[in-house]
Amino acid sequence: MGMSSHCTWGQGLWSYYVGQRPSGKPWWTKLRPFLAGGKSLLLIKSFKDMPMPASTGVVFANGERWKALRRFSLATMRDFGMGKRSVEERIQEEAQCLVEELQKSQGALQDPTLIFHSITANIICSIVFGRRFAYRDPDFLKLLDMFYQSFALISSFSSQVFELYSGFLKYFPGTHRQIYRNMQEVKDFIGHSVEKHRETLDPNAPRDFIDTYLLRMDKEKSDPNSEFHHQNLINTVLSLFFAGTETTSTTLRYGFLLMLKYPHITEKVHKEIDQVIGSHRPPALDDRAKMPYTEAVIHEIQRFGDLIPMGVPHVVIKDTKFRGYIIPKDTEVYPILNSALFDSRYFDTPDTFNPNHFLDANGALKKNEAFIPFSLGKRICLGEGIARAELFLFFTTILQNFSVASPVAPEDIDLTPQECGVGKLPPVYQIRFLSR
Ligand code: HEM
């Protein structure tokens, strides 16, 4: 079994080899070219009856459509990374708003879920809509609530049952209907924003992702085969929200729970921040190269946090030989990412949170090829760069300004996930952010 001991749902249900652990190369080095074939990302069945043709938007599209949308999304996010204000600056600005917000709490106990959702969602809002939202804006809060609920519902046991019997269960009430309703509301929100962008569009000065897309749509409007139509816009924006907010915020949430559990590790991060950044300027991405310990801690948070244990389902794009078997074309393949993240051949103590997994004998950052939380190949996470920038800047800005405390003694802090399905969610917890 390749499952983490923390992910009890998987025990006994999944096996990706039978008998002795096979010797030789691990699965993910061999299957890489096929998983990554660029063709098909299989749908999670809960999404199949969503209010969108399942194959639109960058996450769900395949073939030429996927290529066009992926290329556009990457290039546009890069432009907004290099253009007037870089993604780094946007994250730094958000991190300062976060510090102000946390200062207001004056060290009171709080559940960090909502504030972490808000900051990661605001980064996507800034890229896509060209603006951030105030943390108490009612529209923003509603949007966040719908996303968080959906992610939790998709990860829930009832959704896993739905996965197994969706053909029959789709006719009955259940979580899939709630997910459907939530998604429809989010789409309405995006549609409304697209209309407003259309009214104020200046072809010479695109402000954000939506403007850039609308201009491309106009340019290709005489091409009946263009992929740049309204529906792909809505669903690509939806994809970015869906893929880019819960993921990063849940990782941060796991991260701070781990900081509460292991105060000696937090202490070392504090020290490195004080030495390299000090307290008079905000952390910047260039600091990463000089902060191997903090980088190792963030890598270990992602490894141990194991956000998407089963990966995202794919299909093989041609008959594929694997360990003496033929996997026929179009077979569903689950790249069980946590079988790599918890592989004892690559990590000395896989079941223990241990930043040394990513440090060499001299204390320098050590790469590990089994570290694949963003998956691998052509369909590797499109937001990896943004996610890594967010994790570093949010994590260090918080710890530059605050120490953290829990009402529960470290040895009693329970790391058992609250949900472990498509996503692995940390348990709900309370934390104090105390000004340093
Ligand atoms: C810690 C944070 C994140 C993690 C662990 C993560 C992980 C993943 C994984 C495992 C996949 C599936 C790859 C596959 O099909 O094999 C994926 C896809 C994707 N992610 Fe992320 N992600 C994160 C943050 C983000 C962010 C911030 C964005 C957007 C800015 C984003 C956008 C996407 C998109 C659009 C896809 C679909 C790519 C495609 O199908 O071509 N992700 N991510």
Automatic annotation (TrEMBL):
Compartments where located: Endoplasmic reticulum membrane; Microsome membrane
InterPro entries reported in the protein's UniProt record: Cyt_P450, Cyt_P450_CS, Cyt_P450_E_grp-I, Cyt_P450_E_grp-I_CYP2B-like, Cyt_P450_sf, Cytochrome_P450_fam2
GO BP annotation list: epoxygenase P450 pathway; xenobiotic metabolic process
Catalytic reaction annotation: an organic molecule + reduced [NADPH--hemoprotein reductase] + O2 = an alcohol + oxidized [NADPH--hemoprotein reductase] + H2O + H(+)
Names of required cofactors: heme
Highest taxon of the lineage: Eukaryota
Main location: endoplasmic reticulum
Catalytic activity, EC: 1.14.14.1
PANTHER family: CYTOCHROME P450 2B6, CYTOCHROME P450 508A4-RELATED
Family in the record: Belongs to the cytochrome P450 family.
Protein name: Cytochrome P450
